[in-house]
Amino acid sequence: MRRIRANAILILTVAWILGTFYYLWQDSKPSSSSSSSSSSSSSGSQLKNHGQKGRLEERTLPLIVTHAPKLEQQSQLLGQFDEKAFLSSKQLKTGEDPYREHAFNLQESDRLGSERAIRDTRHYRCASVTFDPDLPPTSIIITFHNEARSTLLRTIKSVLMRSPPHLIQEIILVDDFSSNPEDCRLLSQIPKVRCLRNERREGLIRSRVRGASAASASILTFLDSHCEVNTDWLQPMIQRVKEDHTRVVSPIIDVISLDNFAYLAASADLRGGFDWSLHFKWEQIPIEQKMARNDPTQPIRTPVIAGGIFVMDKGWFNHLGQYDTHMDIWGGENFELSFRVWMCGGSLEILPCSRVGHVFRKRHPYDFPEGNALTYIKNTRRAAEVWMDEYKQYYYAARPSAQGKAFGRIPEQEVAYSLLKQGGLCLESHGTDSLGLAECKTTPNIPASQKWTLIEPQIRQQDLCLAITAFTAGSKVRLEPCNIKESRQKWKPRGPALQHMISGLCLDSQPPSGPPLVAQCRPQVASQSWEPQLVT
Ligand code: LR7
Ligand code: MN
After folding, report:
1. Pocket of ligand 1, beta carbon within 6 A
2. For residue range 150-184, what is the model confidence (pLDDT) as tens digits?
3. Which residue intervals are annotated with compositional bias (Low complexity) in the record (predicted)?
4. What is the side-by-side strand order in the sheet with 531-535?
5. Which-ligand-closest: CA of 48?
6. Best mutation site among 149, 172, 226, 330 for ligand 1, i.e. most ligand atoms within 8 A of its Cβ?
7. Per-residue pLDDT for 218 more than 90?
8. Which of 129, 178, 409, 410 is 20 to 30 A off residue 288, Cα-Cα?
9. In this model, does residue 105 exceed pLDDT 70?
């Protein structure tokens, strides 16, 4: 009798273990034999592809699955919204290429349903992190242009299913002039979901600004229209922003396969980066920082964010001037926002205890009215022109095709000009090779040839810089294109004199006839005394 009972228990245990494994395997296996070959044929792929290779986590994941809510909860979540009718009215026809319209496998997305369970991909220690009980609510902003209904609905439902309800003030959908206005209208039947529809195609940047302006919560959360948020994704981000409103935080962005929609954990050792052509890429956290990380739940500082999925304070977003609304369609706004944050004293971080899945694609499924390459150049050129000062030359060196391309108007930068006075005379340029002293002109008749900008260590006239021609006393000075690394262009004030940094020589007007050169510094000598006088 004892023997039979023991056997029965053993059989049950084995069956239970096998069942669990089968369930998990079902969750992650590729469930169709479709190939991805049709998904990667586009002019835009080289701009678009952020290179997902190497981003996926290698460690084995904890076998925890985030379950869908029970049926009663679901109907409460969706209110009057008729999910079945919404999804079934637009389905793939037999024989149609499932990648054509969205650059991901639509057939798989449609097959999945709107509330599948996904793995909790966080480090196990994240589960025991605690948050303030009084976190403020957020407005979720999702802009979309011709998104697939199944991915858009899954994004919305994952937010409603996996966020504490009191933290979701509203979900604002900004329909960027999609072909079918019904997508947005029908979704607004879901409780908390609002729909704003653009009257013409604006692109994601102006659409997000519109969404942010309409938001009623003090914290903004941006999401792409093909995401799935994971367990407790929101609390860590709101917590960090609540503690310091100048933080801009993003989750680790997990990968949803564009072929079979498997949800795959991304590496937790990466941060945002870019090259001089302003192309976004993921980079390894520097090794010293990685070694010093003994708490895997701590934030990771990042120079830039990927752009689509982040949380920030609404007041801070407005204080920074929101986005550059002259950027079109897609691209560049993530650098521009990141630069604003840094330069205005804020910070950017990735929170490893927050995970959001995103369908990474290899091409843009939508059109760019002015072409994809020109649009990317316009947007990144604006970011470079407005924020990168003399470093913009590296951008142009890395992307020579950007030179001369249209980028619209940018706000006139506030530059302080000075005259460089010596007695009643002023330092003046005549072309690049020749400099001299001439009678000082007065406002409003000051010519560009007498206006200098003194931004240490450079003495500039527009994009030209004052440079010595050799490192020896008696060498002539001239103007040449500014280059921040060029030591011949580096000066510093020394009393009333202007001293070349490396040679230690001083700018001397060589009276009575010039031309100016560099000479041994002699305190108080009139020919080495330059008095900057600000002009407007
Ligand atoms: O004209 C448009 N109007 C829109 O509303 C074009 C796009 N969109 C919407 C679109 O439906 C989607 O919801 O804007 C969102 C982003 O467009 P995607 O998904 O085609 O772009 P992406 O995922 O390649 O874009 C990444 O870089 C963009 C640069 O402008 C944006 O910052 C995206 O938000 C950003 N996505 C992410 O950061 C997710 C992680 C990807 C990475 C790295
Ligand atoms: Mn996207």
Report:
1. 48, 50, 143-145, 147, 176, 203-204, 207, 224-225, 253, 280, 306-309, 329-331, 333-334, 358, 360, 364, 366
2. 999 999 999 999 999 999 999 999 999 999 999 99
3. 33-45
4. 434-439, 425-430, 417-422, 531-535
5. 1
6. 330
7. yes
8. 129
9. yes
Place of tokens 């990667």: 40
What contacts 466, CB < 8 A, 6 or more positions away? 435, 458, 459, 460, 477, 478, 479, 489, 491, 507
The pLDDT value given to residue 36: 35
Please state, as a whole number, how many other Cβ atoms lie within 10 Å of the Cβ of residue 81: 18
**Which residues, in sequence order, are bridge partners of residue 281?**
273
Tokens representing 512 are 């009575």
Nearest CA to ligand 1 atom 34: 308
- How much is the ipTM here? 0.98
Looking up tokens 């830039």 gives 304
- Across residues 468-494, what is the average pLDDT? 93
To the nearest 10°, the Cα dihedral for 231, 233, 236, 241? -160
- pLDDT tens-digit series, residues 341-378: 999 999 999 999 999 999 999 999 999 999 999 999 99
Q: For residue 491, which of 515, 507, 475 has the smallest C-alpha distance?
A: 507
pLDDT, tens only, 497-518: 999 999 999 999 987 777 999 9
Q: State the pLDDT at residue 40.
A: 33
Longest dimension (CA), the chain: 120
Whole-prediction pTM: 0.74
Structural tokens at position 55: 């981003």
Among 166, 144, 145, which Cα is nearest to 156's? 144
Strands (E), 300-344: 300-301, 310-313
Q: CA–CA distance from 94 to each of 34, 149, 150 (Å)?
A: 13, 18, 18
Band the pLDDT of 139: cuts 50, 70, 90: very high
Give, in degrees to the nearest 5, the angle at Cα 262 between 261 and 264: 125
Question: How far is 11 from 381, CA to CA, in rounded Å?
Answer: 67
Name, in order, each residue with C-beta under 8 angstroms of 310's C-beta and a sequence gap of 6 or more: 221, 222, 237, 248, 249, 250
96 alpha carbon to ligand 2 midpoint, in Å?
23
- Find tokens 């469930």 and name the residue: 31
Measured distance CA(424)–CA(437) in Å, rounded: 10
pLDDT value of residue 55: 87
- Cis peptide before 365, with omega less than 30 degrees from 0? no
Q: Report the separation in Å between the CA atom of 226 and the middle of ligand 2, taken as the mean of its atom positions.
A: 6
